Amino acid sequence: MASMHEGLRHVILEGLPAVGKSETLELLARFYPKRLRTLPELVKEVAIREGIDLFADRERLTEAICAELPRRREEIARARADGVLCLEESHLGVHLAYAKALGDRSFIMAWPALEKALPEPDLYLRMESPVEVSVRRQTARGTPQFQVGEKTLRAMLAYLDAWHVARRSPLRFLDAARPAGTFVSEMEAMLGLTAEEGSPDGGFDVLLLLGRPASGKSEFIDFMRRCPLERRMDRYHLAGFDVIDDFPVLWQLCAEDDLWEGLGRGRLHSRPADGNYAVADPFVWPFLIAKLDRLVRAMPPSRRTRIIEFSRGGSCGYTDALRQLSPETLARAAILYVSVSFEESCRRNLARYDAGRRSGILTHSVPREEMERTYRTDDWESLTRGAREGTLDLDGIRVPFATMGNEPESTNAAVLDGRYHDALGPLYTGWRARRR
After folding, report:
1. Residue 325 burial by CB count (10 A; 0-12/13-18/19+): exposed, middle or buried?
2. 1: pLDDT strictly greater than 80
3. pTM for the whole thing?
4. Least crowded by CB within 10 Å, which of 115, 298, 318, 358?
5. Would you say residue 361 has pLDDT above 50?
6. According to DSSP H, which parts of 263-305 are helical?
């Protein structure tokens, strides 16, 4: 999607309840405290402050909204005068649509006068999500005083769409029913919220996460996803992040081989092995690296960390793979190698296997023959000359690295915290020093 950010000073985020509007604005405010100002939903703010029942006391709510609107206009004007982007949650056009769906005559009658006083935003962004998802999430939140039923939501959306059409609103849509990282990255690009070079509080730019199969790379990512944002930034130097993993790409190639074989053609990349697949074409490995590199370079600029995860084996597996990455990617990168022995890698690889979910990141398994043939040895020790941390010279680009021991296996959060913090702290220091 093309960027929409040129000239934006006031943007309103709209969408169904519980699709993540407040959380998105909170996240962006944390990432960009000097570049934007966020305003909460006016109607909800007034209702909470005045103790108004949103459904039972509509006339009082209308009076409170009318009284509050001048102050909201001043907040928007102040943000524009300060030269920051004002991001506002929801708007009174949405409330009008709810009023029509609920038969609220008090707000419908007040609307013509209110409309004249409304600030006109530069852009409306709608976070799209199925009505059923909104209803389910509202129930999960456990706030019945704000809960809106499916019938009302569908009627409200119809009225809101007609309102935008009549006004010829500058309205754009964002699919919110996606992983948060993908959604937020697209919003950042649309709003022009890209990081300055060397931003001190944005964390790693690109983190190459390496290690044998089942060494703990996916568990590292799962740990970070569950970690509260503030602690993750402070403790591990990771804010929002996206993961680019070559396993799904490899699995797709193997699944396509199944289709070719079913059509009577030969397999191109793989062969069946132990209920899974083994790589048959050695050019698959450089293809996967080229694919990862293309994916990360195609992502829009953002303060989010790009975690690139892969395993390689053999006498020059990591050497070849790293040197195949583009200079643009290497110049942004730091490397974390998760170290376990071959025997431990095999044990965990077998233990994590779930035949019913064999295409899953945390549940797939590498066939034993592939483990022996490809991963029994790797060149990380020789590449780093046995050092636990330092820099690698990759065709003239100095890339900082850290080797993190991950044995014995542990699911204890305190143990993992120590391992991750002790590795990422010095690595981040080296990465920041290189970028100055």
Report:
1. buried
2. no
3. 0.56
4. 298
5. no
6. 284-298
